[in-house]
Design a protein that fits this description.
The protein is mostly helical. It has 13 helices and five strands. The strands form two sheets. It has a three-stranded antiparallel β-sheet, sandwiched between helices. A two-stranded antiparallel sheet has the order 4-5.
Length: 247
């Protein structure tokens, strides 16, 4: 497989759907020899068999993983990916993704594998086989029901609900730190840090007072407390007079 085809295979495995212009941008940023959009369009129009054998299809002007086409998920996946930045590894790491089964071995992966091999499947190799299957399903957006199915497939019987919850907690941590197609190769935690955390409202400096009100005395322009004199002039405390009417 030549270098351009290797990039196409690797990036399609990483993103699920690879725009032609992104291929050009990434390839040209990492290599002295440059490619043009014309060359890439020629590949899309006269699709090489070796890419098809690598589970890559030409679909609607994109390089698309076979699974996306097979399960008719192109439109839904494009919707999920919209507006999210792309994760772009360095060249050495990127080309590892030419292997359709490649995945990053994270701390969360090791934690789940250690638990499974210690408590559920004593054969370490078989335990790793199952955790690898879980990792692979998470990469394409599978939910926790699929994870349960993997345990069932390997004949795992949980001792009790507590053990099931321990495993699901580890699986969720793995899920949150797995690179997935709908996040353009980013993990859910990375997307949270990049897009959501900066927009989170900071906690107020003053603790919230459940006894406070949002009613303003129009004469003094000050907020009225529940135990302040009622602004209606009745002589009663606000909470014993007009508070219920205002709420």
């Amino acid at each position: 497989m030549n270098l351009i085809h290797s990039y196409i295979s690797a990036l399609t495995n990483l993103y699920g759907i690879l725009p032609a212009e992104l291929l050009v941008e990434i390839f040209n940023s990492q290599n002295d020899e440059k490619i043009s959009m014309e060359e890439v369009n020629d590949i899309l129009n006269d699709f090489p068999e070796e890419l098809t054998k690598a589970y890559v299809y030409s679909y609607q002007g994109y390089f698309v993983h076979e699974a996306v086409v097979e399960f008719d998920e192109f439109d839904s996946l494009m919707g999920e990916k919209a507006g999210k930045p792309y994760y772009i590894p360095n060249k050495e790491e990127l080309l590892k993704y030419t292997d359709d089964f490649y995945y990053e071995v994270t701390e969360e992966f090791e934690n789940l594998l250690d638990y499974v091999s210690m408590h559920l499947i004593k054969d370490r190799d078989r335990a790793q086989e199952m955790v690898e299957e879980i990792q692979g399903s998470l990469e394409i957006g599978s939910d926790l029901n699929f994870i349960i199915n993997h345990f069932n497939h390997f004949g795992v019987n949980f001792k009790n609900l507590e053990q099931l919850n321990e495993v699901m907690k580890l699986a969720m941590e793995l899920s949150n730190n797995t690179r997935i197609w709908e996040n353009n190769g980013h993990t859910p935690m990375e997307i949270f840090d990049k897009l959501e955390r900066p927009n989170m409202r900071p906690l107020p400096k003053v603790p919230f007072d459940f006894n406070a009100t949002n009613v303003i005395d129009m004469k003094t322009r000050k907020k009225i407390g529940r135990n302040d004199p009622c602004p209606c002039g009745s002589g009663k405390k606000y909470k014993k007079c007009c508070l219920g009417k205002d709420e």
